[in-house]
Amino acid sequence: MYGPRKNKLIYWFFSFYIARSIKRDFYTFQFNAVETHPDQAILLLANHSSWWDGFLLFRLNQLLFKRKFHIMVSEENYRKVAFLKYLGAFSVKKGSKDMLETLDYAGELLKDKNNLVVIFPQGKLYSSHVTQVDFERGLLRLAQSAGKKFQYVLAALFTDYFEHRKPGITVYLHNWQAEEFTSLQLIKNAYNKHYERSRQQQCVKIV
Q1: How far is CA 38 from CA 41, 110, 113, 174, in A?
Q2: Which residues make Cβ contacts (< 8 Å) with residue 95, sequence separation at least 6?
Q3: Parts of the chain with a pLDDT under 50
Q4: Domains present along the chain, CATH in parentheses
């Protein structure tokens, strides 16, 4: 596993660059506010349909959650996009022995109320037009490693042009309360209910 690195200058530069790029390349970046608990870390689960997703959620955290940002990325992307590690990225390599170490590391991050951890449960890019978001195994171990000291926030991201030359981004957020004994299937069902509601709401914009 490769963990995040600290460099205030690089972090500041790319924070500015990402904010500027989103403003320049999209006609809008919309999201709804959700209630968060100041004494709990946030596990942000999101669909993954574009190269932009991690940067959009980084910016969302700056504007809304204001936590220490962390995001799980593939080892390939961690190596390929060198500055990611300075924005809070840590790597996971599927099928390797250190995958469990990575999941436990993410769980430890969620024990700190000042942290936010982004996970793309699909594990790779899929179209935002899919009707269901599949979850890879591993998320439950992460949750178990963290105990019950964090908050689930579900995010559904959609991109549409409508009448504009540039695309617009809408992020639908939902605060989900986990049950006493939570299974991967329960988390998946909760996420997909939110995703489907969000997809229908996004379609209404077209009418």
Answers
A1: 8, 13, 7, 17
A2: none
A3: none
A4: 8-204 (3.40.1130.10)
